[in-house]
Amino acid sequence: MSPREPSYRTLRLLCANAVGMAGFLLAFAVAREFAVALVAGAIMAAIGYAASSAVVAYASA
For residues 41 and 21, is the Cβ–Cβ distance under 8 A? Predict the structure, then answer.
């Protein structure tokens, strides 16, 4: 990757953050347990970060 090509790291982190927050809120609403919701949010954030490649591909096109 050349220095002029954007890495889209911020976009990936924003996607992961949005998915993680949604997963946390949904899990907390269902389970009413903070620890369960925290783990679910972290797992969803990791999935969101991995899935953000589609968003990055759209942004770079």
Answer: yes
